[in-house]
Amino acid sequence: MPKKTIAFEYEKETKNSVRYKEVPEPGQAPIVGSLYVQKCFAGNCKNLQVSIEKKE
Length: 56
Known about the structure:
The chain is mainly β.
């Protein structure tokens, strides 16, 4: 199945998590949009990469 790596950049902090916004490839629509990650994992990270794979 196709596997896709998606880039995210820091958007803002909430009480217990950090919100990241997707950085879509030029000419492409966002696949995920926003992503919330717990502060205990995200720390001070400003950029994330997430891999997603479709399974049928």
